[in-house]
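ok so I'm stuck.
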Amino acid sequence: MELFSNINIQFYIIAYLVGGIPFGLILAKKFSSIDIRESGSKSIGATNVLRVLKESNPTLAKKIAIATLILDALKGMLVLIIASILDLSHETLWMIAILSIVGHCYSPYLKFEGGKGVATGFGVMIYMIPIETLIAFAAWFIVGKVLKISSLSSLIALIALIVSSFIIHPDIPVIKTHAPILIISFLIIYKHIPNIMRLFNGEESKVV
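replied:
not stuck anymore, here's the structure
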């Protein structure tokens, strides 16, 4: 039990458990009595919330999707903020960032199923590497507006994040490695494999 008295370990567990909270599922069930895991892409993220709920109530769908997006972004960021206030190391902060996304993608509350990690990834990255994340957000926004394909805009934003991180920070401050960014990117890309296959087959749905 001595292991669990270590504050780093405590925050790793908290990051995973908080990251796993399925806000999209909770909000959709509470306000529309719909299980979003049974329709659309079956993801618990904001895009699927919007896609599924707009069939019955477009106005409510937008509100719940926005709330989902914000809450999914905040759940990783808030744990990082608290950890920073307690002066935990930069290495610990990056592990918290990773585990927040792992929690979202493989939620302990959903039999280790979950979302694709984009919003939670944005939340932790805007805290850890804000300039690169803003560049990625701009790419996401522009591609999303033009092509209206959520998965494609997310993947292009991820590429923009990775490339800009190597340009702006050839060595990530303190830890001197891009490994956490690459791990997070791998998780998000892995969760997008079905979307990538649909993109190649021209079958990916647009968000309108």
